[in-house]
Specification:
- This protein is α/β, with parallel strands linked by helices.
- It has a single domain, classed as 3-Layer(aba) Sandwich (Rossmann fold).
- 46% of the residues lie in helices and 13% in strands.
- The protein has a seven-stranded parallel sheet, sandwiched between helices.
- It binds nicotinamide-adenine-dinucleotide.
- The site of nicotinamide-adenine-dinucleotide has 29 residues, from α1, α4 and α6.
């Protein structure tokens, strides 16, 4: 039997987020960039953010060149409480509030336990993967409450639930396990205010960083494909379509859920 593996659905214009304002972080690269492009194409007014001003600027230019609406604050370090507060202020100044927060910005360091430096790798990963989500949720919460509710989308990972075979990912797994657990609990708190909080757990998605990793270590890709049922890597658009559903009112009864968007990699 010849296997059939369909490619990711390309970004398409539509109206699924018409009337919504969406704050999307990490727009300079990968999943954050794809979410910003898709959300804008689907009618949202997008407010982006990234610590890397050049890459964020390129995403804003691409969105506007397609005829859609987007602003962005960059450079902005979201591991700093002041950075998170500035992004919220910026979005409120532009649009009077927002309905959606996509926490895609992240930084993680990879090293084996014995070689991992406590401050520059372990702490930096927990700050860059876990604190970064906490800080923007906290800063955004009063705005979402004032809005009468909203949708927060966090990124855990397949490695929040299963070990990453053959990779030095101890801090990353801890950070993503934290995002998964925090999301569930925030959903409980948010339920009182009409705020839904969900996580998406991708397996291997092609981005600049993961492409470099795959090039340096071909067995990394082989192992990932061996685990997948759909035998291709994920593309940022595969993830953005799930985020679009969670951002829209189509998912109004969905909270505290985790969506494994991983080609089946964690199902066995
Ligand atoms: N790519 C994958 O295979 C994969 C798999 C599982 C989970 N995830 C998760 O999905 C999310 C998005 O991943 P990605 O691969 O698109 O990431 P990426 O590395 O391609 O992009 C992350 C973006 O965040 C920005 N950023 C980093 N630190 C920041 C800070 N302190 N303040 C503001 N911006 C900052 C970076 O400049 C970059 O543009 C992350 O949480 C990641 O851990 C990714």
């Amino acid at each position: 039997m010849k296997p059939v593996f369909k490619p990711a659905l390309a970004i398409q214009a539509g109206e699924r987020l018409r009337g919504k304002v969406a704050v999307v972080t990490g727009i300079g690269s990968g999943i954050g960039r794809a979410c910003a492009m898709l959300f804008a194409a689907q009618g949202a007014r997008v407010v982006g953010c990234d610590i890397d001003a050049d890459s964020a600027g390129r995403t804003v230019d691409a969105v506007r060149a397609n005829g859609f609406e987007m602003d962005s604050l960059q450079p902005c370090d979201l591991t700093d409480p002041e950075g998170a507060a500035k992004l919220v202020e910026f979005a409120c100044a532009r649009h009077g509030g927002f309905d959606v927060v996509v926490n895609a910005a992240a930084f993680g360091a990879f090293a084996w336990l014995q070689e991992m430096d406590y401050q520059t790798q372990w702490r930096a990963t927990l700050t860059g993967e876990l604190d970064i989500v906490f800080l923007l949720c906290k800063a955004a919460w009063p705005v979402l409450i004032a809005r009468g509710g909203g949708s927060v989308i966090n990124f855990a990972s397949a490695n929040a639930s299963v070990a990453l075979d053959g990779s030095p990912a101890v801090a990353h797994c801890a950070g993503k396990g934290g995002v998964l657990a925090m999301t569930r609990q925030l959903a409980m708190e948010g339920g009182l205010h009409g705020i839904r909080v969900n996580s998406i757990s991708p397996a291997l998605v092609e981005t600049a960083a993961t492409r470099a990793h795959m090039a340096a270590q071909p067995e990394f890709l082989e192992r990932a494909l061996a685990k997948a049922m759909v035998k291709r890597t994920g593309q940022p658009e595969d993830i953005a379509w799930c985020a679009l559903y969670l951002a829209s009112d189509e998912s109004s009864w969905v909270t505290a859920a985790n969506f494994p968007i991983d080609g089946g990699a964690t199902a066995w």
